[in-house]
Amino acid sequence: MGRTLAGGYLILEAIGAGGMGRVYRAEQTSLGKTLAIKVIHPHLAGDDNAVARFYAEARACSRINHPNAVSVLDFGRTDDNLLYLVMEFLRGRDLSRVVWEAGALRWDRSAEIIRQVLAALSEAHEQGVIHRDIKPENILVEPLRTGGDFVKVVDFGLAKIRTDASPGVTSPGLVCGTPDYMAPEQGRGLPPDPRSDLYSAAVVLYYCVTGRLPFDAELPQQVLLMHVNDPVPDPRQFVPDLPAHFVEVLLRGLEKDPDIRYGTAVDFAAALQAAVAPHRPAVRGGAHCPRCGSAVAAGLKFCGECGARVSPGARNPEGNDLVGEGRRPQRVAVSTTTSSLGAMPLVGRAQEFERIRGAWDATAQGRLRVVSIAGEEGVGRRRLAMALVEHAASRGATTVTVGPDATWAGVAYAPLARCIRALIGLRAEQSPVEWYDENFAVGDPEHEPAVRSGLVEVFSAEGAEDLGVQPR
Known about the structure:
The protein is α+β, with helices and mostly antiparallel strands. Helices cover about 35% and strands about 10% of the residues. The strands form four sheets. A six-stranded antiparallel sheet has the order 1-2-3-4-6-5, covered by helices on one side. A three-stranded antiparallel sheet has the order 7-9-10. Strand 9 and strand 10 form a beta hairpin. Helix 3 (about 105-125) runs antiparallel to helix 5 (about 195-210), helix 9 (about 350-365) packs across helix 10 and helix 12 packs antiparallel against helix 13. The two termini are about 35 Å apart. The model is unreliable at about 165-175 and about 315-340 (pLDDT under 50).
């Protein structure tokens, strides 16, 4: 910490570590610009293969110039033989953390994330670079102010330059990568090619939409063998409502035979685009691009995704709102209807129900009671809880029911967010943070910084910067 490297890079703090080295946040003092510096582990600096891989990463990244790939700005060696790589500083969260916190992602959101990954891989493959370690930890996701996700592919530490004939970087038959995401040919020790990256991207897509890996075992060798030999489980076992066309695209990306997979990242991305296009919501005041299907706002003549010209006379799927006329979108009343099936009467649980109703009666009198209903699977715990809810509601109480996140996310924000919305009385499209700012401005006697920080943490994609605010 506090050391300045050649080029005026001041090391500020450590922000991560991997198999090849440690990553630091740094500042280029002459410009006051924040950068990331990857320093190879000192014990690897004397390993010729490790040093060769380090320079291979520097050369690989310097060849790639794409918005969805991390930019390498400089690299060098210190006087005490430490190798370092200077990169742009990224503020997003890695995809593994996104899925861990939110659970399985919507299939269309997952497809858009992987489409951007494929865009970066397409540029890398055009430059003769194979990543060889595509996995969620190497995909950073940053939320855009306008909505959606912006993706950066990082860590080309295992990258192989196809035109580089130097023999010492990777020995023939040596398996490099992360077993959970490796293509079958990598597991066999065969030379990787761009289609190996596409298989890994498809595994990441499978992980995003289902919240689980297609193959899982205790030992890495077992996982490799499963990728080589076992059929891929149908993702609809875990997410039944996935569109058939999307599943077809996903499973083709996971084909064991590289010749059956998509030939290029562009082909894979186009297939994903075609699978998502029919399910896009109608664009009010605009239209969809006739080439790639992306939304094009009113007044624009060209698609922001592929650059295709959009005819001023084109209509959106609703048959109204011409592109180029600049019509303002009409306000649409959103209504929701709910229906419930009647439950069978609660029978044979009179004693248990009296106990939990007693807890309700105590609460109604101002004494808070917390009740846990325990029992084996299938004995009717939920039915007993719902009977209590019906009992309380019949007596004028406000009741909110929540359950565990359907995707079993590691951070249980989904049920908490549902509970908060119900208690506040907000519609799904309303932002609780904006609602709080409108009703409890700074300086208001009822404004509570800790409450606002909690709402930001639960409801915003990037989370709260500081949850250490002490309430009054």
